[in-house]
Design a protein that fits this description.
- By secondary structure, this protein is mainly beta.
- Helices cover 0% and strands 42% of the residues.
- A hairpin with a 5-residue loop joins strand 23 and strand 24.
- The two termini are 62 Å apart.
Length: 330
């Protein structure tokens, strides 16, 4: 049942007593106006203990059969759940604040019971999972020896040749995506939504460390390593093409406009001096553009209305670009 902080008339309840088998033997013990639950007899059977939020917070109350009800505990906030009274009526145990509490019914003193879990590990434990579905973002390393993929919102890496157990790369509650390998096959770049905007992260397998690369208030997408491994191109807010120098952590804007934020829509030249991307022209036609990685003028290298599939490749010798178009006449 959903619970909200404070009193709600939707969960008000009464406690009744049946003294015999005839209909006239029913007697109301606790009136509504509060949530009243879990009645428990005292050892002598002359009073009832129960949970009520009549005071504004959930507490243990007692109601003599011939007297007025009163609060036994004096909690000002929190919940009192699943109370259970002992056979001799001297103690009541219940859950509160995700812990176990005990109440002395004679003195009204309540305290949390310290619980030590014997054999519990003091640090992170190894968990082995066998998964057969839900795999995403498959990315093969340039050396062909390793493969990275996303499953259950985390990045794992495994041997692409021998197979075997995969090693967990990320440990975060946030979604990760757009996994790409560095040319040295020792680093991974990816996008993670750990704050209000998604940022770029770098994982180094040599040191086993993760580094956050960007911290802007707007979303970053499409990380792509330069062939020499020194630069990382990416798109910010679908409107700016950036390049990040990994050694100095300095970034600069290469181009502005409406830029495709798909990882396959960015392509580096083999000499790491040029970046090709797909962007919109002034007439809203998507075409291929190139811009110097060191900064400079960006210019269109195609002029057709619909180069809009988001896939762009640069030839290894740097002499031509390949991309798709929905123009059926081309």
């Amino acid at each position: 049942q959903w619970w909200r902080n404070g009193h709600s008339h939707l969960v008000e309840s009464e406690i009744w007593l049946m003294r015999g088998l005839s209909p006239s033997s029913y007697e109301k013990i606790v009136d509504r106006g509060a949530k009243n639950l879990w009645p428990m007899w005292s050892a002598a059977g002359r009073s009832l203990f129960y949970m009520s939020d009549r005071s504004g917070a959930e507490n243990i109350w007692v109601k003599p059969l011939t007297g007025e009800a009163r609060a036994v505990t004096q909690f000002r906030a929190g919940r009192v759940l699943w109370p259970s009274i002992s056979y001799d009526g001297r103690g009541i145990v219940f859950e509160r604040g995700f812990g176990i509490w005990k109440l002395d019914t004679q003195s009204g003193q309540a305290s949390e019971i310290a619980i030590t879990r014997r054999g519990a590990s003091i640090g992170p434990v190894t968990e082995h999972l066998t998964l057969n579905s839900g795999f995403q973002e498959l990315s093969l390393a340039p050396d062909g020896r390793k493969v990275a993929f996303v499953v259950r919102g985390e990045i794992f890496a495994a041997s692409a040749r021998e197979g075997g157990d995969a090693a967990r790369v990320t440990r975060s509650l946030a979604r990760v995506a757009q996994v790409t390998w560095a040319p040295d096959s020792r680093r991974l770049a990816y996008v993670s939504e750990r704050e209000e905007a998604q940022h770029l992260f770098l994982y180094d397998f040599g040191t086993g460390t993760e580094t956050q690369l960007t911290r802007d208030a707007k979303n970053d997408d499409a990380p792509r390593f330069s062939p020499d491994g020194n630069l990382l191109a990416f798109v910010r807010d679908d409107k700016e093409l950036h390049v990040l120098e990994l050694a100095s952590k300095q970034e600069r804007v290469l181009a502005k406009g409406f830029i495709s934020a798909s990882p396959r829509s960015l392509a580096w030249s083999a000499d790491s001096k040029w970046v090709a991307y797909l962007g919109l022209s002034t007439r809203s036609f998507r075409n291929a553009y190139i811009v110097p990685a060191a900064g400079g003028e960006s210019r269109a290298v195609s002029a057709i209305p619909n180069a809009n599939t988001g896939t762009l490749s640069w030839s290894p010798d740097g002499t031509f670009l390949v991309f798709n178009t929905s123009q059926r006449t081309e």
